[in-house]
Amino acid sequence: MIAPLLLLAAAPPPLDFDMRDFGENSVVYAAPAPSASVIAWPKRTRLRLDDRGDELVVRFDRPVYEASIARFERDAERHVQSLRWNDDSLLLRPNPGVRLLPRVEGSRLIVAFVRDDADAPPPPDADPPADDARDLAMVAIRADLASGFVGKARRQAQKLAQRHPDDREVRRLLADVVAVDGDHHAAAADYRAAGATDKSARRAMALGAGQAAVGVTLRDGTGFTQVEGTARVTVTASETLAISGAVRHVATQADAAIVDDVLAYDIDDQATLADLTVTADLAPRLRVDFVGGIWLDNSVAGGGVRMVYGSSDTQLRIGYVHHMPDLSFAEQAVDRGTLSQLTLGGSVQFLPELRGRIDGSWRRYGVAGVSDAAETLTLAGQVDYILLRRPLLVTLGYRLDAEYVQSLLHNAIGLQRLPLSDRENHTVQAFASSAIGPVLMTGGAGWTVDRYGGSGPNASLAASAPVGLRWQVDAAMGLTSITRPGFPGRQIFGRVEIRRALGDGI
Known about the structure:
There is one protein chain. This protein has seven helices and 23 strands. Helix 2 (130-146) runs antiparallel to helix 3 and helix 5 (184-194) crosses helix 6 (199-207). It is an alpha+beta fold. Strand 12 (286-295) and strand 13 (301-310) form a beta hairpin. The chain is elongated. 16% of the residues lie in helices and 53% in strands.
């Protein structure tokens, strides 16, 4: 099933892709040497400096020129340990042994870099006032969040909230970070504690109780078409427990399939399935999903467990499901298909503009009475790099999607029980995303080459629109040449989903 669009991400993904806004630049460099570099803003921008000796915070009322940031990085690469920014603040840390000497000239920031043994004024000895330390910490958290390091931002925001339990600004910042991390229930509690009443906070509070969704998905390939309708409800049972249930109806049409050891034509089949997921937060960064599924037409059932450690930006995933109902092939749709799968993978935010993921799995496909009709190993990976942020968010990515057949059963007349073969798709793709009023639009295009034969284009268009406080409408459509089980050639796809938050937003 095509993955649903994200609700709160800065750049929601189109179908079959894992797009996100990974934030701003943060680069580690080599040993320092004395020099000076410049960062420029639009004319009449007001700049305010907060120099703490070992780091510099710059606040401004207009976005910085990104081309100027790029030049600064090239000029200062020997001096700078990290540079992060968002729409109204910038955080600069020098390498050890280097001191910053900043000054403002109009709408330009000029930063000189000197060694500790050079003739430079010493940093202040006294600790900063409590309010200044709080403000500096909040700027650093916002910079980490804008840079895509959500896990680090959340940990630092939680520590800051512990030091300032009655500070509503700190609590609001924590709520914003937690919402970006996808924990709507915790975010709702923090928004309420902060007394937030704006629309974005109220939408997050409405989501804290859970959500209901209905959707329709279409995928049409060479001689194989599936249409799936889904109704799903997710309810937050407690601070650490959520329950999700779904009913799916899948209509399958195929030109031909192996049924009862013979080649049958003009396949037209209907199936109804139910899924149940119980999600438990066992530790601050450890989430466990207990999953189960049943084919209501014939009582084929299965279950499993998935564990995720980490935050939305960087995480480790492992899971196993056994004998779950599966309709990847026409043969499975008409002959009680199952899937057992062991998975291991992870995602990493390398730099603010660079994110990657990799997942591997062992799969065993089954049909009626045969649990091992085919065994395969899969490998999926993706790297995305943000090229531009304004006026459009533009991302360039590479994707690997491969499956290698280890064994295949044949029937009595020598035909494969399932039409599986090796595939290794290499895809280069670009995406552009921008808000048009309240609607977030994302478009993508690319090209796929399969090492085992075949190549072709990919194109997609997705839209996500909030309606009031509780409703959300997501839609996507496109063309892909990435082969997958059941779809050995080019496919078109489309999806529409309507969601409603179960909370009242207060």
